[in-house]
Every structure is written in C-alpha cells, then in structure tokens.
Design brief:
Elements lengths: L7 H12 L6 H9 L1 H14 L7 H6 L6 E7 L2 E10 L7 E8 L2 E8 L1 H4 L15 E3 L4 E6 L6 E2 L4 E7 L2 E6 L4 E6 L6 E2 L4 E7 L2
Antiparallel strand pairs: 1-2, 2-3, 3-4, 5-12, 6-8, 6-11, 7-10, 8-9, 10-12
Length: 203
Amino acid sequence: ESLEPLDFDGLKKKLQDEYGENAIQDQDVLSAALYPKVFKDYMLFKEEFGPVHGLPTRLFFTGPDIGEEFQVELQPGKVLNIKVLAISDLHPNGQREVFCEMNGQLRTVMVEDKSVTKTLERHPKADKGVKGSVGAPMPGKVVGIRVKEKEVVKKGAPLVVLSAMKMETNVSAPIDGTVTKISVSLNQSLEAGDLLVDIEPLS
C-alpha cells in the first residue's frame, strides 16, 4: 500500500513561515513529514535551549561535573572552552545559579532544576506550541493590564505591561482573537515564560 502524495514544497514553506526561513532545511521537511509531533517537540526544544549538536553525548544527557573542562565547537574554527566552577543552592523559584569559565571569562547562568520544579507550586507557563498562549518575554512585574476577558483583540494590540530594570515593556497580541483568560494580576512578579493571557483565534 502506497502513501498519499505529499507537497514537500508546500510543507517547507509552511514550516519556514512558522519557524523562520533560515531555520528549515530539506532534512527538517522530511522529519516533519514522517514524524510531525516529534519534529514539533524538537523545534520547541531548540527554541528553549538553542542548538545542542556541539555537545558531547555524555554532557548532553548527564551534564558536566564540577571542575570539569570541555569544549564546544560552535562552527569551524570557533570553539568555546568551558569549565564548570560551582552550582548554587536551590533558589525559591526552582533555579540554580551555575558559575563557569568560558574562554577564561567568568560567567553565571540561571538554570532550572527540573528534578524539583515538578513538585513546586509555580505560576503556569505559556504553551510555546500554541500561538494564543502568551507568555512573559522576560522577568518583571505586572504594572498594567490592557484587556479584559472575552474582549476581541487584533494582532499587535497591547495586552499586558511589564516593568523590569526601570523600563516598561508592552506585551502585544500575537494573533487576532478573543481573550479567554487573564492569568496575572497587577504588581505580580513573573519569570520569563510565565503565562499572561490566553487568546482563542477568530474562526
């Protein structure tokens, strides 16, 4: 039994519209055609963590040990020498601060400890696979809510105002639709990715 014909050019254009023209290669189109859910999960992973193909297999699965030094090749001739120096105690938000050296320069990175965050009571996160699930683009405090539930909004309309480092940022609607739920309140402190508003697309 043969498979139904598939428009690979059409699928490639659809993927490029969704993820960016430079993000989709021919092998990505084939992956999306054969395993659409796996491919979508893979693209969401890449959006959250960036490209990880340069990591050695063991480091990808288990992470480095304290004091371990390793290399990551970003592109031919461009290599990062990384050494993990220390990892902080758990912060209340479920993150740990990782201290490391990158090419001799001290760097700190906040990393979610997923072994404990499953049991923490936390603000819900926006679903990156749903365009109407709008998340906070950065940590900050809610200083303005510009919409109400059941309100119809146009793409680009202001939804929520966040304040961070004495600067205010308007979070806009990514699509036309109806606001079905507002998940924040004034003066609430948020982490990046926390759910702000749910929008149901107009049919």
